[in-house]
Amino acid sequence: MLSSLPLFHRLSGQPVVVLGQGEAADAKRRLVERAGAHVLDDLAEGIDKGARLAFIAHEDEASAQADAIRARCAGLLVNVVDRPALCDFTTPSIVDRDPVIIAVGTAGTSAGLAKAVRLRLERLLPQGLGRLADALYAARTALKARFPTGSDRRRALDAALEEGGALDPFRDATEGSVADWLEGAAQGTVAHHVVTLRSFDPDDLTLREARLLGQADAVIAPRQVPQAILARARADAARLPVGAKAEGLTVELRLPD
């Protein structure tokens, strides 16, 4: 069961109430302004202007509770800094690769833990992840032209975005990555994955390798690869000899060292 439901609010140009003084209140103002919202420091004005969210950062407990009740009774969702029991929502630690946004939350139990996880993710995710998202959005027409059905598009994108795929999101996207991938797709090379076997035991396949075999349109394999491993591929996937070319998602199996 989820302790809270993560949602993304579009706040650009919208009024948002931020009450209080000091470091915590200033941090909330910066966060709200970063989302493009118009910050109001008067609750009555916020109610009149149709604000939907209120951040309350009073140090005094009684003042925080009173303003939280007033805001909630007026229909606003309320966040009271450092008082999870008074909150309708909490603010996560954010990894910003706009338009890709990753929110790490702990339902108000530990901001320090959320920050630690966010910093780890910051090191893993390339700065170009947002550019990849923008490029995929811009390529929607070309994607539909190349892959007319929704199932074909999903399969092609799944393959390209897989670990090691042409558009692996954990690799920094280069200018034209999506265009280059689509050009290859138009020539029938949606994705080509190489799997070097560790043994001839199918149980030694990793989860990712088994998943790729299960998705593949074609499997390229030396004749020594046993049927027990080839059986992990789709029944309708083409079985091709080494050196063959194939369309769609292709997995090339290589012999153990």
Structure description:
With 257 residues, the protein is α/β, with parallel strands linked by helices. The chain is 38% helix and 17% strand. The chain has ten helices and ten strands. The chain has a four-stranded parallel beta sheet, with helices on both faces. A four-stranded parallel beta sheet has the order 7-10-8-9, covered by helices on one side. Strand 8, helix 10 and strand 9 form a beta-alpha-beta unit. The protein is elongated and about 75 Å long. The mean pLDDT is 91.
Question: Which descriptors would you attach to this protein?
Answer:
257 residues, alpha/beta, 10 helices, 38% helix
Secondary structure elements and pairings:
Elements: E1 15-19, H1 23-34, E2 38-40, H2 43-48, E3 53-56, H3 61-73, E4 77-80, E5 93-97, E6 100-104, H4 111-124, H5 129-138, H6 140-146, H7 150-161, H8 177-186, E7 191-196, H9 207-215, E8 218-220, H10 227-230, E9 238-240, E10 249-254
Parallel strand pairs: 1-2, 1-3, 3-4, 7-10, 8-9, 8-10
Antiparallel strand pairs: 5-6
Regions with little confidence, pLDDT below 50 for 5+ residues:
none
Major pleated sheet: 4 strands, parallel
Instruction: Order the strands across the largest sheet as they lie in space.
Output: 2-1-3-4
Strand runs, count: 10
Note the quaternary state here.
single chain
Number of helices: 10
Give the averaged pLDDT, no decimals: 91
Rg over CA atoms: 25 Å
Strand content: 15-25%
Protein structure class: alpha/beta
What is the share of helical residues? Answer: 25-40%
Amino-to-carboxy terminus distance: 46 Å
Order of helices and strands: EHEHEHEEEHHHHHEHEHEE
The shape is elongated
